[in-house]
Design brief:
globular; 21 helices; 72% helix; Serine Threonine Protein Phosphatase 5, Tetratricopeptide repeat; 437 residues; two-stranded parallel sheet; 1% strand; single chain
């Protein structure tokens, strides 16, 4: 600058503003002050003779557009960058494994996903410039994630349409990755599409995508991707009631996680192993796995994992007849899930509380929790959960001698299970219908 050379000023670290806790006596947050300064000093900044590059996370970018409009209107360009660091790539692959319980599609933090309209506009613009642009793989993948996130958060106004758009976006990303021979991107998107299909109870299709992903991971020697695919296969076989097969996959997942030092994956696999052993009525073994998982989740600060481990512990103590302890764990789990906005997890916790009150013979209270859970499950298109909750509501109604309404709910649950080809659950409904008739 002293020699009159060219210079660019780069401003980084704005993401730290989001982490600062406001003191009770402060009237403004650090974000408020930052955006205010940008707006108030805009005239002075215009006189600054050097270009300024301001790095912002997506959440701050949205705030900037709304709350510092004059400053925003003077921008010369807006560039969007994807995190391709090894650590970020590894985390993305590991997080591709479904969260535990009967959960839904893995989603990135909503702050990192641009709005659907913005993604679609960028795809249209890029496609017009270069229909074969490599970056379109990423944009279509993110569009699929955004649509899936909208469904899973219960914000979809047309569930069938958004479901089709989710699948179409992921399939576009996969096809383009194949054309470009980008095996890593293909593997990751196959896992994400498989997770979405699993969340929508399309188990056969999900398995096919997970198996393709696993094949690619083995081909390119990606241990993290291999672990994700194995864990996801374990999840879908759990949904199918094939618990021993689920255990086999999760044990392989756990082994790889330990080998590569992946604490997140280790906790995740332990939690799923606990869930499978719970379904095999090995409750103490299930508790041991969940306790190990809970310790790691708290150690690494994973609130979602902590909530799910607490929920599983509640289920296990239910089965041991320790109902108050079960309620305590489920309430803790529910509070965290609501705090972090985990809608499907909230449905799980509400359903589990219903189970506990059913075991306490408080059938009307159980129905109240089941109904709250059912509303969420219907909202996010979680058909496996809808069937289970209808079955639970019907069992509660039968115990209240409301046999007519119970029979209707048993029949609705059976129809869902038949459509999902879950024969073991169809048999359970048939037995209940015979007893109720």
């Amino acid at each position: 600058m002293q020699q009159a050379g060219a210079a660019v000023f780069t401003v980084t670290g704005t993401e730290l503003l989001l982490r600062i806790t406001i003191n009770a006596q402060d009237s403004q947050s650090e974000v408020d002050k930052f955006l205010g300064y940008l707006q108030w000093t805009r005239e002075g900044l215009r006189e600054f003779p050097y270009p300024i590059v301001l790095w912002l996370p997506h959440r701050l970018l949205l705030d900037l557009k709304q709350r510092a409009r004059d400053f925003w209107s003077w921008r010369k360009a807006e560039l969007r960058f994807l995190d391709e660091s090894p650590d970020a790539a590894q985390v993305a692959k590991l997080l591709a494994v479904n969260p535990p319980e009967r959960s839904v599609f893995f989603q990135t933090d909503g702050e990192n996903l641009p709005p659907i309209a913005e993604l679609e506009a960028e795809i249209a613009q890029l496609s017009a410039q270069d229909p074969n642009a490599p970056v379109l793989v990423t944009f279509y993948d993110r569009l699929g994630q955004a649509y899936a996130q909208r469904i899973n958060q219960g914000r979809s106004s047309n569930l069938d349409q958004d479901r089709q758009k989710t699948i179409a976006a992921f399939e576009q990303a996969i096809t383009r990755a194949q054309t470009q021979q980008n095996l890593s991107a293909e593997m990751e998107t196959l896992n994400r599409l498989g997770n979405f299909l699993d969340s929508q109870s399309s188990y056969t299709e999900a398995i096919a995508h997970y198996e393709r992903s696993l094949t690619i991971a083995l081909e390119i020697g990606d241990r993290g991707g291999e672990a994700s695919s194995l864990g996801n296969l374990g999840n879908v076989y759990y949904s199918l009631g094939q618990y021993q097969q689920a255990i086999d996959f999760h044990e392989q997942y756990n082994q790889i996680a330990r080998e590569i030092g992946d604490r997140f994956g280790e906790a995740n696999s332990l939690r799923h192993l606990g869930g499978a052993y719970y379904s095999l009525s090995q409750y103490q073994r299930a508790i041991n796995f969940q306790q190990q998982s809970l310790e790691i989740e708290r150690e690494i600060g994973n609130r979602a994992g902590e909530a799910n481990a607490l929920g599983h512990l509640g289920n296990a103590y239910d089965s041991l007849g320790q109902y108050q302890r079960a309620i305590d764990f489920q309430q803790q789990s529910l509070e965290i899930k609501r705090e972090i906005g985990d809608l499907s997890g909230e449905a799980n916790s509400l359903g589990s509380l219903g189970n506990t009150y059913f075991l306490l013979s408080q059938y009307q209270r159980a129905i109240n929790f089941y109904q709250q859970s059912l509303e969420i499950a219907q909202e996010i298109g979680y058909r496996w959960g809808v069937g289970t909750l209808l079955l639970n509501i019907a069992n509660s109604q039968a115990n209240l001698d409301d046999h007519g309404q119970a029979l209707l709910n048993f029949q609705q649950a059976k129809a869902i299970y038949e459509d999902l080809q879950l024969d073991h659950m169809v048999e359970q409904c048939d037995q209940a219908i015979r007893e109720c008739s």
